[in-house]
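note to self: the first set is below, dont mix up w the second
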Amino acid sequence: MNVIFVLCDSLRPDHLGCYGNTTVQTPNFDRLSQLGVTFENAYLSSAPCMPARRDIWTGRYEFPWRGWGPLEQSDVDLPGVLQNAGVKTALITDHYHLFEHGSGNYHYHFDTWEFIRGHENDRWINDPTIPITWPAPSYEKCHIRWDQYFQNTAQWRDGLRWRSESDAFAAQVFTSAAEWVSHHHTEDPFFLLIDCFDPHEPFDPPPPYDTMYASEIPEARIRWPIYGTADRYTEAEIKDIRALYAGKVTLTDTWFGHFLDRVERLGLLDNTMIILTADHGHILGERGMIGKPGAHHGDSNLYEQIARIPCIVYHPDFKNQDLRPLQLVQLVDFFPTILETLNILPPENVALHGGSLIPLVQDSNAQIRDVACFAKYGEGVGISDGRWTLFQWPSGETNQPLYWYSVLQPEFLKPKNLGPFDPTQKRYPVGTVRGPNTSSLFDLDTDPGQIQNLLDVHPEQTVRLRDHLRAFFNRIDAPPEQQERLGL
């Protein structure tokens, strides 16, 4: 048996046909859904990009201990376990955070890896002779990092217009992946991880995807909106941002489809599990917000637009069953799922926080957890049973005590007021990291947009979910001060 793991950054399930969207064209993601199993209640674990990847790589929640960073020397990571078991491992990606200072060692234990350069703020091209064409006024409506991205991609475009969609990053990633499986499909077992940065911003798809969902195109298109409040954008600009994002989703689907065609022609559907998921979603104007807002942006709850992720699993033993399990699953579950599929025992020296998805496919009554818990380090914690979602925040402004558990100082999204390293506990004390939020409770059945706070209306649900949150922290042996700072 082989495993192909496809991770698409910022892919919202509500933009896929297989999750009920009737507007955005995703025939190839939908085809995989029809072939396999589509989990209806999948959530991220730790946010944002790199914390989510550490959850996947280690099978353990990161957010109670630290935030964005590299793998620790003590981490037992999935590619390393597979490599030691004799599985051929490969990584194909344009996700530059895997390689940059402050997080860049996630490729270490792959037998081979390919890094496709130039996406977002990848520090690749530095040519002052390239004239920068801004899609919108810089520093006002378009992210200031556009200049680096534009230099990276200028070789493939005329001004703002891409010459060919085959040069787009999703196309390059899935074309490279198709070539890899063509050369290695007989090397059973293998594990191929495709980490595709699309549809992450910049929302800059080539034709025809750039106009596919746009009814009216503003004079200046916001291809890289700034995180935080959406009030800097007009209603027409918000609508166009959504159109550009949808276009990038369809672009990603198209080139995933070319890859899936190659997999099918090679006969790999007979002996290969394929997992398609995302690290998180992206807010596109809902609740008056844009992006994945953090504490410094204001409202930083991990609402459904961010917390929900697609989770589609194709397995040769369960194909064409059109299963849609309702159990709660999270990113930490992929580590044990892949090990079980490849008949590899879990490592004895590490306690995995997730569980294999295979029993959920075999038995509709089986479950891994009663609730899903998710958070950004140092902020509030979201907990959901699939209907009720509680965001538990510290009371008051202190958010203490809080520690960063690592021998390495944070380099990206760095907490303020980092204290001296404590070598006995291997941690740094951290000052306040939080937004202005207070605890809130939402009923997803009656209020899927999470607008009406029912914390005082349904205290019994609040008490129940807080009990679950205490049990969660105890189960994973989280630092005890997490419960203290959250008022639990």
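second set (the one i keep forgetting abt)
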Amino acid sequence: MSLAFVLLNAWLVLKVDTLLGVVIPFAVVVIITAIFSYEKLIWLVVFLTPLSIQLRRLVYEAPFDMHVPTEIIMGGILILFFLSFVRGNRIGKKITQHPVSLAIYVYLGWMFITSVTSTLPVVSFKHLLVHAMYIIVFYFLMSYILKKHEKIERFIWLYSIAFVPVIIYAVVRHSAYGLYDDNAAHWVMVPFFNDHTSYGAALAMFIPFLLAFAFAGWIPKKYKFWIWMLLLTFIFAEILSFTRAAWLSLFAAAIVWGIIKLKIKFKTLMIIGLSMLFIVFAFQDHILNRLEQNSTDSSSDLMEHFSSMTNITTDASNLERINRWQCAIAMFKEKPVFGWGPGTYAMHYAPFQITEQRTIISTNSGDGGNAHSDYLGALSEMGLLGMLAYLSIIIMVLYTGINAYTRANSERIKTLLLASVLALITYYLHGFLNNFLDTDKIGVPFWGFTAIIVALDLYTRSDANAKEIHSTAENE
């Protein structure tokens, strides 16, 4: 068998010019695992997500693109799920009828409608299928798996530990150019991540969990050294990613942590928020003038690089992002109800570029990617209702997570809930500046952390009900 495997690979390399034959043993293991338990396949996907590579990086002339092997396995899990569903197995009404689930139904339902009305239906239905796959596998099935909340930490450890080789790979490549070379920081994580922005966003999503575990009282001291080492590794990698949006998202998560810990009332937050909006509106000309005076470009100096975030005069990255946003808004104005269709922004934004707003990195063919905003991307592709449907998921998740946190009595449950909320906050904010939900690197933790919040919400509700029933019985 070994000799046959070697000969087959030799033939594939020489005749077909591909290394895909090396995945045969892996495929056999996956098939055997699927026969016994597709839960193990889900855990396998979590572990392989940081290590996955786009198909076109392996097969340059592939007619389509996907993340391998993760999306292949997810497709198999989806088939197994439907077969199980047909046989009568269900994940439970508590999950399927949860308020977060209802918000997701609205989102997917509107995505389906706008795929029907799409200017490019094939592209849109593919986009819908990918989103539905992530949601079914890593929200619905993961919520069911995490009914045993002891498995939650397994999710974090599998992804985090598999991330370490990617970090080492990126740092070693970066060191060859000097660790403070911000230009090298943009691509040293390729082929595992497409660029430094998605890399930084993924790192930011796991730092709240690692920080929580480093101070957690229930974790034995013998493991604390390794947790601290992992946390410092992630922080070091985050700094070297030179991803300003990720740094800002962690700062915002720290503010939210302070608000939750100080138990500041929602009414107070609303007053503060509205006051800040009034101030920004009243002094908008002065603020814009100050921003235009900032000429600090992206730099290897960390402070200069961070301050360049507000440079809307000369920084090409910031100006191009504004160009994409303006295109998204213009596209929305032309098709405000149904939008242009899910996943179609990149194919349509080019004609909406205004000459004065184009930058040195703008492209005439409009092949430079997406809208650089989850919210404006949804607005241009699915209209106003599409963006509101996406926002409704975020609002419902935060409401559920914070309510469950205040209701929980266990330190472990409270810590996991708070870390999940803060991890999602980092991406919710990052979503204003980029959009990565159609990639496995972000899609897996995004929907996985949402599942953690829902699973723990259901657990705290049942735990509270059990205590109430027990207390009533004692009183009687």
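remember for set 2: The chain has a mean pLDDT of 86.
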